[in-house]
Amino acid sequence: MAKMEKVKYLIIGNSAGGIGAAEAIREVDRTGKIAIVSEEPYPAYSRPLISEYLADRCPLEKMLFRPIDFYEKNHIQTILGQKAEEVDISAHTIRLENGRTIAWGKLLLATGGSPIVPQIEGTSRGGVFTLSTLDDAKALDQYLSHRVERAVVIGGGLIGVSVTETLVKRGIKVTIVEMKERILNTILDEEASALAAERLKGAGVEIITGHTVSAVSSYYLSGEVTGVTLDDSRPIPCELVVIAVGVQPRTELVAGTGIKVNRGIVVDRHMATSSADVYACGDVAEAYDFIYGDNRLTPIWPNAYLGGRVAGFNMAGIPTEYQGGTAMNSLKYFGLAIVSAGMVDPPDNSYQVLTKRRNHTYKKVILKDGLVLGLVFAGDIEKSGIIFSLMKDRVNVEGFKQALVADDFGLISLPEEIWRPRLEAPPSLLASSVTPAGQPEEITIAGE
Predict the structure, then answer these.
(1) Based on the domain organization, do 384 and 438 belong to the same domain?
(2) Is residue 211 situated within a structural domain?
(3) What is the extent of the structural domain holding 420?
(4) pLDDT number for residue 222
(5) What pTM value is reported for the model?
(6) CATH code for the domain of 438
C-alpha cells in the first residue's frame, strides 16, 4: 500500500485566491509544505485575459500573472490537470480523480465558479460553447476556423458582452439575447446600460432583451448549429452559440461534509468555514461585503486575491481579518470605459443619488448618512478611483458631496485632512479634467 502524501497546507484552486494564499503563507512560513491542486494543466493565468486570447491569440506566456518559476522559487508543489473528487473533513484528506490521496493540516477551497447552462434543447450540439477557462477559449478559437458568419450570445452580462466584442473583432455578426430588460443589468444602472447598448448597436450588434432561447437547432446530418429559436418562436440563424448567462459557485466538493453553504461556502472575517482548519475564498465563497454589512458573493478578481491572502495568513497562524470587499467592475467595451462599484441602484428612497450627464458621459454616486455606498461612471472614469477610495475608507462626504460629480473634481476638492494622506495616489487620479465648452449637461441630486 502506497504511503499517503502529507502537506501542511493544501490549496484547491490555482487562480487569484489560491496564489494569494500561497504568497501570504510563504511570507510567514518559509518551510511548511504547500501543495496546489488544479483541474487545469496550466500555471496560474489571468482569467480576465481569456477574451484577449480569443481576440488576438494572446500567448499563454503573456497571460501568466506570476513568473513561470513562481512555484519553484516558493517551494510550492503543483498537482495540475487533476480534479479533487472527495474531501474527508474528519480525516483531513482529499482524494483526487486518479485515486491519489493527500493528507492536509490546513485546507483552502478556492474552487471558483462554473458556467450556468440553462435547460435549453440542443445545447449539446456542435458549435455551442461556454467561456470561463483557457481551454474553453482554445476550443472556441478552433471552431472559429470553420465558416462562422453569425453568432448568438445567450446572456448580456459581463462575459456575454466581452465575448461579443471579441467575436465582432473577428468579423462575426452577433446577436445578444438577454432575458432581462437591459444588458449588464447586474453591474450597471439603467442609464449606463443604455450607453453600453448604444455602443454595441453602433458596432452592428443586435440586442434582443426580455426574451430567452428555447432551442438550438441544427441540420440532422452535421449536428452543428444552424440557428436558435426564441421563446416567442422567433428563429435566428447562426453557426455559433455562446452561453453566458452567469456563473455558480463550485460547492460540490463540500456537499455532505457539514460545511455551511448558502449560495456559496460561508466564511467568517478570517475566511474560515464552519469546519476547523478549512478556509474558502474567491468565487466559491460568501464573504463580508462592507457596503451591505453582510456576507455576499462578489466574484471578482481583486476580492479573490485579497481573500486568499487573508486565508493564507490565518492558515499560517497569523490572525488576520478580512476588511471586506464589494462588487467592483472596470471595463471597456467598444471604446466605452465604464466603472461601477458597490450599490448601483438604491433599494428605497432613503438614499441620496447624485447624477450628472453630458453627451456620452455619465456619473452617479449613491450616498446614505454621508457615506458613499455606490458609484457608476461611464465615458469619463478618470476620478472614479478617488470616489472608490472614499467609499472603501468610509469617509463622510456630506460637506462636499456636490463636488463628487463635478467636472473639476479631484483630490483638491476634498478637505485637506482627507486629500493630504492621499497624495501618494497614482498620478492618473490626481490629474484634473477640463470641461469641453459648449456641451449640454444635466446635474441632479435626488433624495434630499
Answers:
(1) yes
(2) yes
(3) 339-446
(4) 65
(5) 0.90
(6) 3.30.390
Here the CATH number for the domain that contains residue 123 is 3.50.50.60
Q: What is the pLDDT of residue 52?
A: 86
Whether residues 204 and 122 share a domain: the answer is yes
Domain boundary, last residue among 199, 214, 245: 245
Residue 428 contacts by C-beta under 8 Å, 6 or more apart in sequence? 382, 385
Q: What's the confidence (pLDDT) of residue 419?
A: 67
pLDDT of residue 55: 87
Q: Which residues of the chain have pLDDT under 70?
A: 1-3, 221-222, 419-448
How far is 328 from 342, CA to CA, in rounded Å?
A: 6
